[in-house]
């Protein structure tokens, strides 16, 4: 007897294969299978305190407090947790140390709603090349943005819909960059409500910037002019505006490899 399969059943194996290929790798970048840091990487966060970090209220995200406070930043359950301290008032937490060329890796488990960012070569007042962590409707992860640099560049290859499990692959900025993850595979590639890995590398001045999500390269971009110093801090942001006092950003396992 010849077995007949419905069209729906024929689609399932292919869909399952796509989902499996989109799964993130088993180990974080910069960490060996034994859980040790790979050669060249050092930890930036001890998991217990903000030692080596400080809060900056100097950026435009802290104007609600007239730049007297930079949001609320605490360490709980092995993670740096940030939120607005009063409605509309955000800010930055940044490394005391400055870096030139480097690769930084973080794990992130933010609420879907607050606007954040990974700042590269940040000044004390928050001017930086930003690897975007706009984790909200219409937002994007690991696009590249000139924070305090005239909004240039602003390059991304997808945006969230109003759901964390859905993205559209509309391109922003020039030159357009292909999206390596099919929108239909996003719910399997991005583990909503769990820890995911974000990584960014910056080299040279004008800088060449590359970003990854869960080990997959997302964006690569080359600046053509020197518009910002070659050295600065690594920062994490809670955006100002609105009321996000009850929504939180969470970061852990922060590590860096100096390239220069």
Describe what this molecule looks like in 3D.
This protein is mainly beta. It has a single domain, classed as Exo-inulinase, domain 1 (Jelly Rolls). It contains 2 helices and 17 strands. The strands form 3 sheets. Strands 1, 3, 4, 6, 13, 14, 15 and 17 form an 8-stranded antiparallel β-sheet that branches. The protein has a 7-stranded antiparallel β-sheet with strand order 2-5-16-7-8-9-10, with no helix packed on it. A two-stranded antiparallel ribbon has the order 11-12. Strand 3 and strand 4 form a beta hairpin. The chain is globular, with a radius of gyration of 19 Å. The N and C termini lie far apart (68 Å).
Using only C-alpha atoms, the radius of gyration works out to 19 Å
Helix/strand structural class? mainly beta
- Please name the CATH architecture: Sandwich
The number of domains = 1
Mean pLDDT: 89
Strands, total number: 17
Biggest sheet layout: 8 strands, antiparallel
- Low-pLDDT windows of residues: 1-29
Helix fraction bin = under 10%
| CATH third-level topology | Jelly Rolls
Number of contiguous helices: 2
Intertermini distance = 68 Å
Shape call: globular
Task: Considering the chains and any ligands shown, give keywords for the structure.
260 residues, mainly beta, Jelly Rolls, 7-stranded antiparallel beta sheet, 2 helices, globular, disordered N terminus
Short description:
This protein is mainly β and 260 residues long. Helix content is 7%, strand content 37%. The strands form 3 sheets. Strands 1, 3, 4, 6, 13, 14, 15 and 17 form an 8-stranded antiparallel beta sheet that branches. It has a 7-stranded antiparallel beta sheet with strand order 2-5-16-7-8-9-10, with no helix packed on it. Strands 11-12 form a two-stranded antiparallel ribbon.
């Amino acid at each position: 007897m010849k077995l007949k399969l419905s069209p729906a059943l024929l689609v399932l194996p292919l869909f399952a294969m796509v989902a499996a290929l989109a799964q993130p790798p088993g180990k974080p970048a910069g960490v060996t299978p034994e859980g040790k840091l790979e050669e060249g990487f050092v930890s930036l966060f001890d998991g217990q305190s903000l030692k080596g970090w400080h809060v900056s209220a100097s950026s435009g995200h802290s104007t609600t407090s007239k730049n007297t406070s930079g949001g609320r930043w605490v360490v709980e359950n092995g993670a740096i947790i940030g939120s607005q301290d009063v409605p509309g008032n955000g800010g930055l937490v940044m490394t005391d140390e400055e870096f030139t060329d480097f690769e930084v890796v973080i794990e992130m488990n933010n609420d879907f709603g607050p606007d954040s960012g990974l700042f590269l070569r940040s000044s004390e007042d928050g001017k930086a090349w930003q690897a975007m962590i706009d984790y909200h409707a219409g937002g994007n992860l690991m696009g590249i943005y000139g924070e305090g640099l005239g909004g240039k560049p602003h390059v991304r290859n997808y945006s969230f819909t109003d759901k964390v499990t859905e993205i559209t692959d509309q391109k922003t900025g020039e030159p357009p960059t292909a999206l390596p993850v099919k929108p239909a595979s996003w719910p399997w590639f991005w583990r909503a409500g769990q820890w995911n890995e974000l990584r960014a590398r910056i080299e040279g001045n004008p800088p060449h910037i590359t970003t990854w999500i869960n080990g997959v390269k997302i964006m690569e971009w080359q600046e053509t002019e020197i518009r910002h110093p070659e050295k600065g801090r690594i920062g994490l942001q809670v955006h100002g505006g609105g009321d996000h006092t009850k929504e939180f950003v969470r970061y852990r396992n922060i590590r860096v490899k100096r390239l220069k």
